[in-house]
Amino acid sequence: MPEIARRDVLKGMVATGAGAALPLSLSVPRSAAPAAPVPEVALRWLEDRPALPTGSTWGTPWPKGVVPKEQSFALAAADGAAVPVQSWPLAYWPDGSLKWTAHAISDGVPAEGYTLRAGTPAAPAAPVTVKDAKNHVDVDTGVIRARIRKDGPDLIGQVWRGETEIARRGRLVNLRQDRIDDDEEGTTRRERYLSDVRKVTVEQPGPVRAVVRVEGRHQSKKGATWLPFTVRLYFYAGADSIRMMHTFVFDRDGRHDFIAGLGVRFSVPMRDEQYDRHVRFVGDGHGMLAEAVKGITGLRRDPGAAVRAAQVAGTRLPAISTWDTRVSGRVGLIPAWGDHTLSQLTSGGFSIKKRTAKGFGWVDVDQGRQASGFGYAGGVSGGLAFGLRDFWQRHPAQLDIRGAASDEAEVTVWMWSPEAGPMDTRFYHDGMGQDTYPEQLQGLEITYEDYEPGFGTPYGVARTSELTFWALGATPDAARLAAMADAVRVPPQVVNPVGHLVAAKVFGGLFSPVDRSSPAATAVEDHLDFLFSFYRAQVEQRHWYGFWNHGDIMHTFDTDRRVWRYDVGGYAWDNSELSPDLWLWYAFLRSGRADVYRFAEAMTRHTGEVDVYHLGPWAGLGTRHNVQHWGCSAKQQRISTAAYRRIFYYLTADERAGDLMRALVDSDRTFMALDPLRKIRTEPYTPDPEALAIGLGTDWSGLAAAWLTEWERGGDPVAERKLKATMRTIAAMPNGFVTGEGLYSLTTGEFAPAAKKVAVSHLSAMFGEVEICAELIDLVDMPEFERAWLQYCRLFNGTAAEQTAETGAAFGNLILRQGHSRLTAYAAVRLGRDDLAARAWREFYTGDGYAPDLPWRAEKVGTTLNPTDEAAWVSTNTTALYGLAAIQNLALVGGKITPPFPWSPTRSEAGSAARSGRPSGSPPR
């Protein structure tokens, strides 16, 4: 059979972006007649109703077989008024009915809530329009117009509000240096690179929301290029803002080329008199620096109360002829402060300084803790407001205004501050002589770090940042500035009610609403609340912030130093080990809590970009936990898995998350580049495209998540075939999932027939396989696959006798039994067995995770560098699995919950792992 070429199969289909209406291929049946009326969905804002008119985009799920694929949708505000809405499909059920739809609302005054229903959408009074010309794309929101260039350094050539040009030459700027000075005497030169646009694609043309994707690289004056980028520009009908999602990929080995600055820059025409020009920075909360370029307050002579009041308010000053002549005659002698800088070099402190012009001394203005990342430069006839989300959380960041006293100011939003020094991407040690696999395995035994020369490289990692720019007709007042700063900090998000998410039976149906219907359930809920609150506090107290770090958490605590093991090999950054991403997202799905959502969102942004390779031979693989996010030599599917991005994508229709999952569809080819078990194989093995050794746990679950997502998003026939072929051939193995590993063909997408053997790892199902299998069993009518999965679910925590009787051998002394209790619960429901339900709760209470009799509280500690809350018994591996087991057990067998059993581990070693800090994420041996 010829090799399946996915790209050839899709050739000729309409080219669309991740957020565009995806084509429904012939492999997905036409939508069946709906079996029930399309339900109405009462939507709400994640946080409070935003104070600022804003556009928002979200996803809504639908029960299987209910909503035909051609369905249109209408939206109404809480008072019944029709709200313009733009809708498009995100995913389909196998019968062709809609599974997820995306919806966007424009920049009108936000309502308290909305109702989404089947119907004809209201059209916006002034729709956003897109004109795709030969050399540029013009977008008109009805309030502002933007010209997007198709080549050259400018992403956005010009922005107008009405007939007034507000900004021009919107481009990316990067400072590069070729080495880091480790001595006191620095001699390194910096070279400036600008964006070089290579491709522009209109992904959505309106009428409510338009999306334009810009791709390119950074280029120097000499023509050298690096740092490929993808920028998406979002426009909403009636809006005066442009939302920018900026992604760059680091395409160096981390040893020779260093980022010394990375930003977005606009030029802003300055038409007003210098005393009618204003600079604004919003710091902590709504506190702000509000100054004029040429100040006329505080002078020795008073120009007049009305003049001073107007300048403070940011409105046009009275005619200069009305001023006190002692001031008006000497205006030229008042300094004009043309340059301003706000730099946030740590998560706990920012500073502001200003100067009159380049070549003159800086004057310190003030300092604060955590700036909003929002500023404004302009005058009474218009200006540009700008903001960078997670400004202090992703320090070092910086806002620059230059030349505000001249005819054209320059505004730069720095995602990496030039004042911070170069981004150090070098590996953190010299290898310590670990040149061979045996030596590297010894290193794993002592520091838990899986080191291998050349593998601790950042080549191919990425980072996505979110920026917003407003083209304003005048200097905003304090209330609007505060509202814009809030929108930068926490972009308003529309969400579905928990009840609708549960009723739609998406994500495997493995969650139910928060349950406090019994003392036993209440105790579990209290424990879940404690764990989330504890980690949220640890992020702040331990300062888990920084450009590359924000969104991740630490792996294991050091009870002697009373710090997390930030500097001990594989115990440092967690990098999704044992699925904290899924714990957080399932916690949100069942609770609707905004704080949980924002925590999960930050983690998804981090783990999908920083912990995964997007270029090079390991593209599509993620990196196991380490002191540096890219430091471990274990590059595997278990970290890059689409299972960790799916929930965020479907809740938000986020195009970048869609890109990340689509990039994984062909990642079965990565097994040709790298054998994940190369260090521990006992027999010779050379990757063969017709017989690739692929684990049926962490490897296959990652592949299956990508194939499932691509299939349901657009009916990709190759993804569907690979998915179903692997399901069928796993089920055909005599021991199914218990076999552990299979030989996979890139040509057929099938596993070869396997002998009856037993190879079970405690890790196999703990990286999204539970969740993906639950979805697949619900989607695909393949009883043999369900039997194979239920066998694994029943037997993992079963007795040695039960395991031997069915498979021919016992599984050994396995750990993570508490986390696996949810597999037992799933089998209990599918098989209708109360004995398994009771066993699931027994395993949950008496497994090797968190026991009911633990303190379940943190203690205040004042002897560490900063005062902290300490719960030395908490580890992230156990937390993630406890959280998922608790949530899914309550959803599956919550009606059969029992009071806690006395702590009594089910195996001699069980419990010691969690209490002693023994690793539970080591590569299987």
TrEMBL record:
<feature type="compositionally biased region" description="Low complexity">
    <location>
        <begin position="910"/>
        <end position="925"/>
    </location>
</feature>
<dbReference type="InterPro" id="IPR048330">
    <property type="entry name" value="PcRGLX/YetA_2nd"/>
</dbReference>
<feature type="domain" description="PcRGLX/YetA-like N-terminal RIFT barrel">
    <location>
        <begin position="40"/>
        <end position="118"/>
    </location>
</feature>
<dbReference type="Pfam" id="PF21345">
    <property type="entry name" value="PcRGLX_2nd"/>
</dbReference>
<feature type="domain" description="PcRGLX/YetA-like C-terminal alpha/alpha toroid">
    <location>
        <begin position="491"/>
        <end position="896"/>
    </location>
</feature>
<dbReference type="InterPro" id="IPR048331">
    <property type="entry name" value="PcRGLX/YetA_3rd"/>
</dbReference>
<dbReference type="Pfam" id="PF19501">
    <property type="entry name" value="PcRGLX_1st"/>
</dbReference>
<dbReference type="Pfam" id="PF21346">
    <property type="entry name" value="PcRGLX_3rd"/>
</dbReference>
<protein>
    <submittedName>
        <fullName>Tat pathway signal sequence domain protein</fullName>
    </submittedName>
</protein>
<feature type="region of interest" description="Disordered">
    <location>
        <begin position="902"/>
        <end position="925"/>
    </location>
</feature>
<feature type="domain" description="PcRGLX/YetA-like central beta-sandwich">
    <location>
        <begin position="128"/>
        <end position="485"/>
    </location>
</feature>
<dbReference type="InterPro" id="IPR006311">
    <property type="entry name" value="TAT_signal"/>
</dbReference>
<dbReference type="InterPro" id="IPR045793">
    <property type="entry name" value="PcRGLX/YetA-like"/>
</dbReference>
<dbReference type="InterPro" id="IPR048329">
    <property type="entry name" value="PcRGLX_1st"/>
</dbReference>
